[in-house]
Amino acid sequence: MFQRTDPECASCSTPPTRRELLLAAPAVAAVGMGIAYPAAAHAAGAKHKTECLARESVVERNIKTFHYLDFHVFNDQQWDKIGLSHSEDVVVHWPDGRTTVGIDAHVQDLKGLFAWAPDTRVFEHTWLFGGGDSAQFTGCVAIFGGTFTEPMPIGGGNTIPPTGKQFNIRFSTTCHWTPDGVFDEEYLLWDNQELGRQLGLS
């Protein structure tokens, strides 16, 4: 398939429009005949390459931040550092359909995971990638798990007694990042029915 691809720019893989193909035809023919490429085309190519490299740099920064979030901030429960990756007004969408607003509410939810499974850990980032016109999105597919060894709070002062069973769940996270290098919206997805089965609750 024909791709608008700069060999030095891995991000340039958008299929060209019909108009772009028609406009490019004379230039392609000129190159084939050994005619010098117009200076304007060189300038446009350089500008495009600069923009793509800038997007790649932002993606790399965001991916590095997210990697640190899971394997250090989350795994080590360093909640005082969660502002390195989350905005103060972050909106978080949970697998059970709940939505929370604000970094403090999110931290309380994260602490809740460790309340009944103190050894909870993210074990692996199977996929971690980013993109978008301004490199404002990242997606991650990962695995986390632990052991149900403490009572699980379910609200109203009630708890579910621990079963001692281990869980190992694949989950995904999609984040929208701001120019400040933190994300202001996050979608968390995993199979709650499978989680309950592994915990011995269904």
Descriptive report:
- The protein has two domains: 4-50, no CATH class; 58-198, Nuclear Transport Factor 2, Chain: A (Roll), CATH 3.10.450.50.
- 36% of the residues lie in helices and 34% in strands.
- The protein has helices at residues 18-32, 39-74, 103-116, 192-198; strands at residues 4-6, 9-14, 86-93, 99-101, 121-131, 137-147, 152-155, 158-160, 166-177, 183-189.
- The strands form three sheets. It has a six-stranded mixed β-sheet with strand order 4-3-10-9-6-5, with helices on both faces. A two-stranded antiparallel ribbon has the order 1-2. The protein has a two-stranded antiparallel ribbon with strand order 7-8.
- 13% of the residues are buried.
- Residues 1-35 have low confidence and may be disordered.
Tell me the layout of helices and strands:
Blueprint: E1 4-6, E2 9-14, H1 18-32, H2 39-74, E3 86-93, E4 99-101, H3 103-116, E5 121-131, E6 137-147, E7 152-155, E8 158-160, E9 166-177, E10 183-189, H4 192-198
Parallel strand pairs: 3-10
Antiparallel strand pairs: 1-2, 3-4, 5-6, 6-9, 7-8, 9-10
Short description:
This protein has helices at residues 18-32, 39-74, 103-116, 192-198; strands at 4-6, 9-14, 86-93, 99-101, 121-131, 137-147, 152-155, 158-160, 166-177, 183-189. The chain has 202 residues and is α+β, with helices and mostly antiparallel strands.
